Amino acid sequence: QTCALPISFRTTVAENSAWIERHHGGNFCQFVTRSYVTAASLGVRRHLKMNDSNSIALARLLDQIAKCAPQITFSFYQLRFPRDPNDIRWQASSFGRLCADPAPLANESTAGGVAVSASTVEGDLAKMDALTQTIEEYADRVLAHLDKRGSAATFTFAELDQALHAFDEIVCSYQRFLTGSAPNSHVAVAQYPIERIFTVPWKQPTPT
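Now predict its structure.
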Protein backbone atom coordinates (compact mmCIF):
# COMPACT_ATOMS: atom_id res chain seq x y z
CA GLN A 1 0.00 0.00 0.00
CA THR A 2 3.02 2.25 -0.01
CA CYS A 3 4.05 2.10 -3.66
CA ALA A 4 1.43 3.71 -5.92
CA LEU A 5 1.24 7.21 -4.46
CA PRO A 6 5.00 7.78 -4.01
CA ILE A 7 5.70 6.79 -7.63
CA SER A 8 3.02 9.22 -8.81
CA PHE A 9 4.42 11.91 -6.54
CA ARG A 10 8.00 11.34 -7.63
CA THR A 11 7.04 11.43 -11.29
CA THR A 12 5.16 14.68 -10.86
CA VAL A 13 8.06 16.27 -8.97
CA ALA A 14 10.59 15.14 -11.57
CA GLU A 15 8.52 16.48 -14.46
CA ASN A 16 7.93 19.84 -12.76
CA SER A 17 11.14 20.33 -10.77
CA ALA A 18 11.97 23.76 -12.23
CA TRP A 19 8.48 25.08 -11.47
CA ILE A 20 8.54 23.64 -7.96
CA GLU A 21 11.92 25.22 -7.19
CA ARG A 22 10.77 28.51 -8.63
CA HIS A 23 8.02 28.55 -6.01
CA HIS A 24 10.28 27.29 -3.20
CA GLY A 25 8.58 23.89 -3.04
CA GLY A 26 11.76 21.85 -2.68
CA ASN A 27 11.64 21.62 1.12
CA PHE A 28 8.05 20.39 1.08
CA CYS A 29 8.88 17.72 -1.52
CA GLN A 30 11.86 16.60 0.56
CA PHE A 31 9.59 16.37 3.61
CA VAL A 32 7.15 14.10 1.74
CA THR A 33 9.99 11.98 0.40
CA ARG A 34 11.68 11.56 3.79
CA SER A 35 8.34 10.69 5.41
CA TYR A 36 7.72 7.97 2.84
CA VAL A 37 11.21 6.50 3.18
CA THR A 38 10.93 6.55 6.98
CA ALA A 39 7.53 4.82 7.04
CA ALA A 40 8.50 2.21 4.46
CA SER A 41 11.88 1.47 6.04
CA LEU A 42 10.43 1.05 9.54
CA GLY A 43 7.70 -1.20 8.10
CA VAL A 44 10.35 -3.40 6.49
CA ARG A 45 12.38 -3.48 9.71
CA ARG A 46 9.36 -4.53 11.79
CA HIS A 47 8.82 -7.65 9.68
CA LEU A 48 12.45 -8.79 9.84
CA LYS A 49 12.72 -9.16 13.63
CA MET A 50 12.70 -12.89 14.45
CA ASN A 51 13.85 -12.72 18.07
CA ASP A 52 11.20 -10.39 19.50
CA SER A 53 8.44 -12.63 20.84
CA ASN A 54 6.23 -9.64 21.59
CA SER A 55 5.85 -8.51 18.00
CA ILE A 56 4.38 -10.05 14.88
CA ALA A 57 6.92 -10.32 12.08
CA LEU A 58 6.77 -11.98 8.67
CA ALA A 59 10.31 -13.33 9.06
CA ARG A 60 9.46 -14.95 12.42
CA LEU A 61 6.39 -16.60 10.90
CA LEU A 62 8.45 -18.06 8.06
CA ASP A 63 11.12 -19.22 10.52
CA GLN A 64 8.48 -21.08 12.55
CA ILE A 65 7.07 -22.72 9.42
CA ALA A 66 10.57 -23.81 8.34
CA LYS A 67 11.21 -25.42 11.75
CA CYS A 68 7.89 -27.29 11.62
CA ALA A 69 8.13 -28.16 7.91
CA PRO A 70 8.45 -31.98 8.24
CA GLN A 71 5.25 -32.07 10.31
CA ILE A 72 3.21 -30.09 7.79
CA THR A 73 2.14 -32.80 5.36
CA PHE A 74 -0.43 -32.59 2.60
CA SER A 75 -2.73 -34.97 4.47
CA PHE A 76 -2.62 -32.64 7.51
CA TYR A 77 -3.23 -29.68 5.22
CA GLN A 78 -6.29 -31.38 3.74
CA LEU A 79 -7.67 -31.90 7.25
CA ARG A 80 -7.37 -28.17 7.86
CA PHE A 81 -8.75 -27.30 4.42
CA PRO A 82 -11.00 -30.13 3.18
CA ARG A 83 -11.89 -29.98 -0.47
CA ASP A 84 -15.28 -28.53 -1.35
CA PRO A 85 -16.78 -30.46 -4.29
CA ASN A 86 -18.42 -27.22 -5.43
CA ASP A 87 -15.17 -25.28 -5.42
CA ILE A 88 -11.97 -25.46 -7.45
CA ARG A 89 -9.15 -27.68 -6.21
CA TRP A 90 -6.82 -25.02 -4.87
CA GLN A 91 -5.25 -26.99 -2.03
CA ALA A 92 -2.57 -28.74 -4.09
CA SER A 93 -1.39 -25.59 -5.85
CA SER A 94 -1.28 -23.61 -2.59
CA PHE A 95 0.57 -26.36 -0.75
CA GLY A 96 2.88 -27.02 -3.70
CA ARG A 97 4.26 -23.50 -3.52
CA LEU A 98 6.15 -24.57 -0.38
CA CYS A 99 7.28 -27.97 -1.61
CA ALA A 100 10.67 -28.79 -3.08
CA ASP A 101 8.96 -31.01 -5.67
CA PRO A 102 5.23 -30.35 -6.12
CA ALA A 103 4.88 -32.97 -8.89
CA PRO A 104 3.52 -35.74 -6.59
CA LEU A 105 0.62 -33.46 -5.67
CA ALA A 106 -0.82 -34.04 -9.15
CA ASN A 107 -2.32 -37.22 -7.69
CA GLU A 108 -3.87 -36.00 -4.44
CA SER A 109 -4.96 -39.48 -3.35
CA THR A 110 -1.34 -40.64 -2.98
CA ALA A 111 0.29 -37.36 -1.98
CA GLY A 112 -0.64 -37.35 1.70
CA GLY A 113 2.94 -37.83 2.87
CA VAL A 114 4.36 -34.89 0.91
CA ALA A 115 5.65 -32.28 3.35
CA VAL A 116 6.53 -28.63 3.25
CA SER A 117 10.17 -28.08 2.30
CA ALA A 118 12.18 -26.23 4.94
CA SER A 119 14.70 -25.19 2.27
CA THR A 120 11.93 -23.58 0.20
CA VAL A 121 10.74 -21.50 3.15
CA GLU A 122 14.33 -20.66 4.07
CA GLY A 123 14.80 -19.53 0.47
CA ASP A 124 12.04 -16.95 0.95
CA LEU A 125 13.74 -15.81 4.16
CA ALA A 126 17.05 -15.51 2.33
CA LYS A 127 15.38 -13.47 -0.42
CA MET A 128 13.92 -11.08 2.16
CA ASP A 129 17.29 -10.76 3.86
CA ALA A 130 19.19 -10.10 0.62
CA LEU A 131 16.79 -7.35 -0.44
CA THR A 132 16.58 -5.60 2.91
CA GLN A 133 20.00 -5.65 4.60
CA THR A 134 20.81 -2.00 3.90
CA ILE A 135 17.22 -0.91 4.59
CA GLU A 136 17.19 -2.68 7.96
CA GLU A 137 20.56 -1.19 8.94
CA TYR A 138 19.38 2.30 8.06
CA ALA A 139 16.13 1.83 9.96
CA ASP A 140 17.93 0.37 13.00
CA ARG A 141 20.77 2.85 13.29
CA VAL A 142 19.22 6.05 11.97
CA LEU A 143 15.45 5.92 12.45
CA ALA A 144 14.66 3.59 15.36
CA HIS A 145 17.69 4.34 17.51
CA LEU A 146 20.31 7.04 17.91
CA ASP A 147 23.18 4.62 17.24
CA LYS A 148 26.66 5.99 17.89
CA ARG A 149 28.02 3.81 15.08
CA GLY A 150 25.88 5.65 12.57
CA SER A 151 25.18 4.02 9.22
CA ALA A 152 26.76 4.16 5.80
CA ALA A 153 23.87 2.18 4.33
CA THR A 154 22.40 3.67 1.17
CA PHE A 155 19.61 2.45 -1.08
CA THR A 156 17.60 3.79 -3.98
CA PHE A 157 13.87 4.23 -4.41
CA ALA A 158 14.00 1.33 -6.87
CA GLU A 159 15.63 -0.94 -4.27
CA LEU A 160 13.08 0.06 -1.64
CA ASP A 161 10.22 -0.58 -4.07
CA GLN A 162 11.78 -3.94 -5.03
CA ALA A 163 11.89 -4.99 -1.38
CA LEU A 164 8.26 -3.93 -0.83
CA HIS A 165 7.09 -5.83 -3.91
CA ALA A 166 8.97 -8.94 -2.74
CA PHE A 167 7.28 -8.66 0.66
CA ASP A 168 3.93 -8.33 -1.10
CA GLU A 169 4.49 -11.52 -3.13
CA ILE A 170 5.65 -13.49 -0.09
CA VAL A 171 2.79 -12.26 2.11
CA CYS A 172 0.19 -13.23 -0.51
CA SER A 173 1.76 -16.68 -0.95
CA TYR A 174 1.80 -17.50 2.77
CA GLN A 175 -1.56 -15.91 3.42
CA ARG A 176 -3.02 -18.21 0.78
CA PHE A 177 -1.20 -21.18 2.32
CA LEU A 178 -2.32 -20.42 5.89
CA THR A 179 -5.87 -19.21 5.33
CA GLY A 180 -6.96 -20.71 2.03
CA SER A 181 -7.45 -17.37 0.31
CA ALA A 182 -5.49 -14.26 -0.55
CA PRO A 183 -5.51 -11.48 -3.11
CA ASN A 184 -2.95 -11.45 -5.89
CA SER A 185 -1.49 -8.32 -4.35
CA HIS A 186 -1.92 -6.06 -1.34
CA VAL A 187 -0.74 -3.00 -3.24
CA ALA A 188 -3.46 -0.37 -3.00
CA VAL A 189 -5.24 0.68 -6.16
CA ALA A 190 -6.43 4.27 -6.17
CA GLN A 191 -10.15 4.57 -6.66
CA TYR A 192 -9.99 8.22 -7.70
CA PRO A 193 -7.59 10.38 -9.77
CA ILE A 194 -4.88 10.98 -7.17
CA GLU A 195 -2.85 13.15 -9.58
CA ARG A 196 -5.63 15.72 -9.96
CA ILE A 197 -4.51 17.68 -6.89
CA PHE A 198 -1.25 18.47 -8.72
CA THR A 199 -3.14 20.30 -11.49
CA VAL A 200 -4.78 22.96 -9.30
CA PRO A 201 -3.51 25.47 -6.71
CA TRP A 202 -3.29 23.88 -3.26
CA LYS A 203 -4.45 27.10 -1.69
CA GLN A 204 -7.98 27.95 -2.73
CA PRO A 205 -8.05 31.28 -4.56
CA THR A 206 -9.76 34.10 -2.70
CA PRO A 207 -12.91 35.26 -4.56
CA THR A 208 -12.54 38.72 -6.07
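Residues 118-144 form the longest helix (27 residues).
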